[in-house]
Design goal:
Blueprint: H1 2-23, H2 29-37, E1 48-52, H3 57-68, E2 72-76, H4 80-94, E3 101-103, H5 114-125, E4 130-133, H6 148-176, E5 179-184, H7 197-217, E6 222-229, H8 236-239, H9 262-274, E7 279-282, H10 287-296, H11 298-317
Parallel strand pairs: 1-2, 1-4, 2-3, 4-5, 5-6, 6-7
Helix pairs in contact: 3-4, 3-9, 6-7, 10-11
Family: Belongs to the short-chain dehydrogenases/reductases (SDR) family.
Protein name: Dehydrogenase/reductase SDR family member 7
Length: about 325
Amino acid sequence: MEWCLVAFLLVVVYLVTQGLRLLFAETDLVLQWCELFGNSPASLSEKVVWITGASSGLGEALSYELAEAGCCLVLSARRQERLNDVKACCIERSRMKADKILVLPLDMLAFDTHKQAVETVLKYFKKIDILINNAGRSQRALWERTSLNTDQEMLKLNVLGPLSLTKAVLPHMLDRRVGHIVCTSSVAGKFGAPGLGSYSCSKHALHGAFNCLRNETHDRNIHVTMVVAGPFFSEALIHAFTESTEKNLGLEMKPGEKRMHTKHFAHHMVVAIANKLDEVWISMHPELAFVYINQYFPAIAQRLAAIVARKRLQKIREGKTDLHS
C-alpha cells in the first residue's frame, strides 16, 4: 500500500509540474524540453539553409538567428533590395563572410523557375541541407463572402508554391540521403478558425502534404518539421487577402497586441529545427491551450470552437469587433 501511495503522489507531482509548465509556456512541452536539454542552434553551424520569404517578418528574423548560429544562407523572396538589406544585417550581426550568404530572388508562383533556382544554389554551395518553406500569405474574410478565386490563389501560394520548390530540392536530398524540410504553418492549420477560411484550408492542406512526405522519406533520412504558429508580430495583416485578391487588409499590428515577438518566435523555431522535431507548436495562450485541447480532446475542442465562433460572429455582425481582432 505504501508503494501505491508513493506512486500515486509521484503521478500527482508529475501532472502538477506539467500543468504549471504548460500554464506559463509559449511552446509545446517537447520543444520546451529540447530548449533546456536538446541540441542548440549552434549545432546547425555550416549547414546550408534556404529560407523563402526572407525579406521581412519571420523569414528575416530566422535569417538573423541562423546567421548567428553559423549557417550558410540562401535568402529568397521577390524583393531583392530587401533581401540585400537582410544580408547586410546578417553580416553585421554575426560577422560572417559575405560569400556565406546567397541572395536569390524567387517568385513562389513561378513554378517553372524553381528547378533552375535549385541548380543555382547547388552551383554556389554544392549542397542544400535545410529548406525552410516560410513564404506565404494570410487572409481575413467570412467563408460565405470569400470568392473561389481567393481560395485558389491562397492554395497556389501557401501550398503549391512550397510543394513545387520542395519537389525541385528533394531529388538532391534523396541522392545524398540527408535533408530537412521545414514548413511554417499556423494554428489555423490545426482547426478551422472563423474568418480565415481560405488560409485555414491552405494550412490544413500543407500539413497533409508534408506529413505524407515525412512518412514516405523518413527511412531515407529526410526529416520534415511542421511549425504551428500562433500570433506573432509581422507584416501579415498588411498584405493579407480579404474576400477578394484585389483587396488587401492593409492593417499594421499594434505594439500593444498580444503577440509573440518575431525574434523570440524565430529562436524557438531554430531550436525545433536543430532537434529535427516532427511538429512543434509555438504560441502564447489561449491559442496554445486550444491546440492542446484540440489534439487530445477533439470533441470538447469542437464544442468550445462552436461557442467561441458564435459569440465572435455575433460581435462582428453587430460591428463591435472585426475579423483581425
